[in-house]
Structures are given as C-alpha cells and as structure tokens.
Amino acid sequence: MTLTITTEEMDRCTVIKPSGRIDSSNASDFDLVLNDVIDGGQKNLVLDLSEIDYMSSAGIRAIVSARKMVKLGVFDGNVVIAAPSERVIDVLNLSGMGRLFPIETTVEAAVADFAKK
Prior knowledge:
By secondary structure, the chain is of the alpha/beta class. The chain has four helices and six strands; from the N terminus they run ββαββαβαβα.
C-alpha cells in the first residue's frame, strides 16, 4: 500500500495526515515531510493518524525525531497525535513512546491543545 501525506495549516499548528502504512520502505518519506514542515518554521504539529493501519518502529523514529526538533532551544513546540487506531496506540505503548506524546481522539481536540497556548 502506498503512503500518501497531506498537510494543512490550522490555528497555531500544521496538521499532517498520512494515509496507509508507515514502514521501513516509506518512513523516510514521512520523515522528509515532517522535517520540511519544521524547517518551514512550524513548531507545533498535529499528526492525524486516523488513516494509518500499520506503523513500524521506523515510523515511530520519525515521530520521535520530529518531537526532538520542535523541542530544541527556544522553540518549545510539540507534537500531538490525533485519532490513532488501537493498533497504532499499541505500537506506541509497546515502544514506550506513548507517554511522550499527547494523544487526542480527534484532530479538533489536538488543534485545540495549541489554541490554548
């Protein structure tokens, strides 16, 4: 299955929505989009994972890397995960990364996290 990724600017954040599977064959594409958004000046990211049916450790590494980048220096940004499937939540929790990220059930709730700041 092909990975497709869309981005949308919203209140104080960018929503990044990948669809399909994120695995070792395409995690670099996901990482590139995350880096491009951050390099473009956005430090608040919402990852809408509602259409991800599988994520490998390579996908987790891309998300963790993005989190490190937005937390550097004075940026004080964050990565919020929105609407992940139970399978993706399990992968995050099994990897120990689930506690690093705020997880919201909807994109609207994740965007609202940044609107409060």
